[in-house]
Amino acid sequence: MTVRIRSALDTLPAYAPGRSVPGAIKLASNELAFPTLPAVAQAIADAAVHESSGINRYPDNGAARLVTALAALTGAPESHIVTGCGSVALCQQLVQATAEAGDEVLFGWRSFEAYPIVTQITGATAVRVPVTAGHELDLAAMADAITPATRLIFICTPNNPTGTTVRAADLIAFLDRVPEHVLVTIDEAYTEFDDADDSPDGLAEATSRPNVVTLRTLSKAYGLAGLRVGYAVADPAVVTALRKVAIPFALNSLAQAAALAALGARAELAPRWQQVVAERTRVHAALRELGYEVPVSRANFVWLPLRERSAEFAAHSEQHKVIVRAFADASGGVRVSIGAPHENDAFLAAAAAFPR
Ligand code: PMP
């Protein structure tokens, strides 16, 4: 007899991360292509051997010092902040806290690959609302798709993988249409790269509306993808629920120490973010010059909506020793992270050589 696994998992794919190939340039996971800051490396080393909180001890479950620093950064009260093992864990916790079998979780499509997975894990139903022809989230259609079964909505801005943002006025009009019992998550994983002047203020919405939560991560702009640090800003009632469904001690001591150091190093990080934005602008222009369709991106990646040719493009790029992320289906395309200038050059050379 075989072990009985929940049938909800039968059609569920495991999350497929961007691949690393030895000797190849990895532009597949939207990481920051800069070395670890010395202050961050030092903080990790110090934390490992700290007298009372070294790694022989369990970490601070509430990450109190980090929460204090995040309150200072965001301007949100500490009671509105909760950390998680990457913001993807918080995505899963949000679904667990709000939805069960028969309930609906709504998001644009394409958007972050983990949304349907964390939804299906709980047995809830994923409702995907297609993006517009311009690859933007269709907030009007999303509002129309709300049903009595809707419990949670993900708004990803800038949107992974299309790079587009929603406008502040459109988001406010959308939020005004959402029933108060439905939780709206504004996923701002790439906010530090967003230079649009009409982007929403997710933190202001999360601190003023009890049914809005804003998610942030230190994996992208702060360069801590390997340490798994994310946080949510939300009403205290939502924060309490997120803590209940959290895995105990999910944020380890070294990650907490590194996150504190990284938050303290914003002055050193900001020029890196500016370089990413400048390189993104360059890559975008070069791809347009080559004749590719590329939506304007406000994140640290660009999107090539190559549809049925996506897998072929990724394989071609890999032959040129550049690993990109292909989403090979009807709404598919290729997402390319912005790397160091020489890495972007290698990608552009591959794109130029792709037979079209
Ligand atoms: N949200 C979005 C939109 C993302 O693209 C990602 C990472 N790909 C995450 C959340 C999760 O990031 P992490 O778990 O590393 O914080």
TrEMBL record:
<dbReference type="InterPro" id="IPR015424">
    <property type="entry name" value="PyrdxlP-dep_Trfase"/>
</dbReference>
<dbReference type="InterPro" id="IPR005861">
    <property type="entry name" value="HisP_aminotrans"/>
</dbReference>
<dbReference type="InterPro" id="IPR004839">
    <property type="entry name" value="Aminotransferase_I/II_large"/>
</dbReference>
<dbReference type="GO" id="GO:0000105">
    <property type="term" value="P:L-histidine biosynthetic process"/>
</dbReference>
<dbReference type="InterPro" id="IPR015421">
    <property type="entry name" value="PyrdxlP-dep_Trfase_major"/>
</dbReference>
<dbReference type="GO" id="GO:0030170">
    <property type="term" value="F:pyridoxal phosphate binding"/>
</dbReference>
<dbReference type="InterPro" id="IPR001917">
    <property type="entry name" value="Aminotrans_II_pyridoxalP_BS"/>
</dbReference>
<comment type="subunit">
    <text>Homodimer.</text>
</comment>
<dbReference type="Pfam" id="PF00155">
    <property type="entry name" value="Aminotran_1_2"/>
</dbReference>
<dbReference type="GO" id="GO:0008793">
    <property type="term" value="F:aromatic-amino-acid transaminase activity"/>
</dbReference>
<keyword id="KW-0032">Aminotransferase</keyword>
<comment type="function">
    <text>Aminotransferase that catalyzes the conversion of aromatic amino acids and 2-oxoglutarate into corresponding aromatic oxo acids and L-glutamate.</text>
</comment>
<dbReference type="GO" id="GO:0004400">
    <property type="term" value="F:histidinol-phosphate transaminase activity"/>
</dbReference>
<protein>
    <recommendedName>
        <fullName>Aromatic amino acid aminotransferase</fullName>
        <ecNumber>2.6.1.57</ecNumber>
    </recommendedName>
</protein>
<comment type="similarity">
    <text>Belongs to the class-II pyridoxal-phosphate-dependent aminotransferase family.</text>
</comment>
<dbReference type="InterPro" id="IPR050106">
    <property type="entry name" value="HistidinolP_aminotransfase"/>
</dbReference>
<dbReference type="InterPro" id="IPR015422">
    <property type="entry name" value="PyrdxlP-dep_Trfase_small"/>
</dbReference>
<keyword id="KW-0808">Transferase</keyword>
<dbReference type="InterPro" id="IPR024892">
    <property type="entry name" value="ArAT"/>
</dbReference>
<keyword id="KW-0663">Pyridoxal phosphate</keyword>
<feature type="modified residue" description="N6-(pyridoxal phosphate)lysine">
    <location>
        <position position="220"/>
    </location>
</feature>
<feature type="domain" description="Aminotransferase class I/classII large">
    <location>
        <begin position="25"/>
        <end position="345"/>
    </location>
</feature>
